[in-house]
From TrEMBL:
Function: RNaseP catalyzes the removal of the 5'-leader sequence from pre-tRNA to produce the mature 5'-terminus. It can also cleave other RNA substrates such as 4.5S RNA. The protein component plays an auxiliary but essential role in vivo by binding to the 5'-leader sequence and broadening the substrate specificity of the ribozyme.
Name of the protein in question: Ribonuclease P protein component
Domain of life: Bacteria
Catalytic activity: Endonucleolytic cleavage of RNA, removing 5'-extranucleotides from tRNA precursor
Gene giving rise to this polypeptide: rnpA
Region (Disordered) residue spans: 107-174
Xref: PANTHER family: RIBONUCLEASE P PROTEIN COMPONENT (PTHR33992)
Biological source species: Brachybacterium equifaecis
Residue stretches in coiled coil: none
Single GO molecular function: ribonuclease P activity
Polar residues: bias regions: 119-141, 150-161
Membership in a protein family: Belongs to the RnpA family.
Quaternary structure and interacting proteins, as annotated: Consists of a catalytic RNA component (M1 or rnpB) and a protein subunit.
Family annotation (InterPro entries): Ribosomal_Su5_D2-typ_SF (IPR020568), Ribsml_uS5_D2-typ_fold_subgr (IPR014721), RNase_P (IPR000100)
Source taxonomy: Bacteria, Bacillati, Actinomycetota, Actinomycetes, Micrococcales
EC number: 3.1.26.5
Amino acid sequence: MTWSRHRLRTPEQFRTATRRGARAARSHVVAHLVIRTDGEPGPRVGFVVSKKVGNSVVRNRVARRLREIFRSELASLPAGSDVVLRALPGIQDLPFSALEEEVRGAMRSAARKAEQRSAAGTPSAGSTNAVQSSTRASISGQEGAGRESSGPTNAGQSTTAARERSAAQKPGAS
């Protein structure tokens, strides 16, 4: 098995899995799982091990242990799923068997939640691109590009007309 086919690579892939995915937590690991609708086969995984876990040696050891545990879980995941496993502080002190139990429990729970969402018709990763684009545009302030906005305006009216109307409605305005 080549591991590179099963890796999350871009920040956007990590962001989609963590924001849109089903979340399941255990005491030392949090799993986020989203089922893609883009038609790509096979599950993909990414690991997040922050500096709170330890120095680089400890973080890399934790990532290697998580990767080894996840290797046996690939076949049990839904086809076309993205998974982000986030390590929490204290994970480095767990014995391998306890860590394996936590990861498997979190994965089962997240997979069950993700399948329930997809059965209920909740939007998943592939169908939310338009929503994400509009959200991104509204956050960055590009939604009304090309016009100044000082508040809500009526459809079809310019900002200047809205300001004049607002000034005329204020008490004491002549």
